Amino acid sequence: MRKRVVTSTAENYLKAVLRLEDMNEKVSTSKVARRLDVVDGTVTDMLRKLQSAGLLEYTPYYGAALTPKGRVIALKIVRRHRLIELFLHQIMGYGWEQVHDEAERLEHAVSDFFVERIDVLMNHPTQDPHGEAIPDARGFRAPEHDLCLASAEPGLYTIRRVTSSNAALLEYLGNQGLLPARTLSLISRAPFDGPLEILLTKTESARHIGIEVAKHVFVSPGKERGRARSSNSNQVPPSSKRRDRS
């Protein structure tokens, strides 16, 4: 088994801080608490311990930020988690809505050797089942160049990733066909946070998804971005070519 540098609990905290930083959000005690489903006081104690260990900088009432040492560990555990998710999905036959909780348990138990064998077996993948980037063995991730569907203008898009571990939401998105690499046409956005009208194929009727669902879907624009389409149109722009992901 691998030699543990920090505890599994500490790894989860570092991973949560990294996620918030990736979302360009302030890493507050309350936000970390919500992500880990713990009370604020517990988070404060752990952040102080991680600061003492040199893994993050923490200022009460302001927030936390990973140090270079903490970022290395956080990226390593993210790599482990996402490789395990992909293994469970593609090899073990888990649904994409089932892999997160299983990977949460396994990421702290399996050895580095096991994880690297998954990487080799699956030909060094760059994306997990949700389209999220898998850091390489050095912790490298190319910058993301996508945008949130909830704030997108009408036009053609390709789904790049889905940023949720909620099983019910992932099952809903799967049933709706809103999966990474799928192309969709965003027809319109209702005002006052109303639903989005979209088309997935040129033969189907338009469907609607709520703004809260759309906040978890990230897309890249196609060639005809910004060109609004009537819900009665039978034509959808041709699929855009997929760009290489991080």
Features:
about 250 residues, alpha+beta, Arc Repressor Mutant, subunit A, SH3 type barrels, 2 domains, six-stranded antiparallel β-sheet, two-stranded antiparallel sheet, 8 helices, 8 strands, about 15% strand, disordered C terminus
Can I get a quick summary?
It is built from eight helices and eight strands; from the N terminus they run αααββαααββαβββαβ. It has about 250 residues and is an alpha+beta fold.
Description:
By secondary structure, this protein is α+β, with helices and mostly antiparallel strands. The chain folds into 2 domains: 1-142, Winged helix-like DNA-binding domain superfamily/Winged helix DNA-binding domain (Arc Repressor Mutant, subunit A, Orthogonal Bundle); 147-221, Ferrous iron transport protein A (FeoA) (SH3 type barrels). Helices cover 37% and strands 15% of the residues. It contains 8 helices and 8 strands; from the N terminus they run H-H-H-E-E-H-H-H-E-E-H-E-E-E-H-E. It has a 6-stranded antiparallel β-sheet. A two-stranded antiparallel ribbon has the order 1-2. A hairpin with a 6-residue loop joins strand 5 and strand 6. The two termini are 29 Å apart. Residues 224-246 have low confidence and may be disordered.
Q: Approximately how much helix is present in the residues?
A: 25-40%
The backbone outline, from C-alpha atoms, is: globular
Q: In terms of per-residue confidence, which ranges show pLDDT below 50 for 5 or more consecutive residues?
A: 224-246
Largest sheet, order of strands side by side?
A: 3-8-4-5-6-7
Instruction: Please identify, by name, the CATH architecture of the largest domain.
Output: Orthogonal Bundle
Largest sheet: 6 strands, antiparallel
How much β-strand is present in the residues? 15-25%
How confident is the prediction overall: mean pLDDT? 87
How far from one another are the termini? 29 Å
Class derived from helix and strand content: alpha+beta
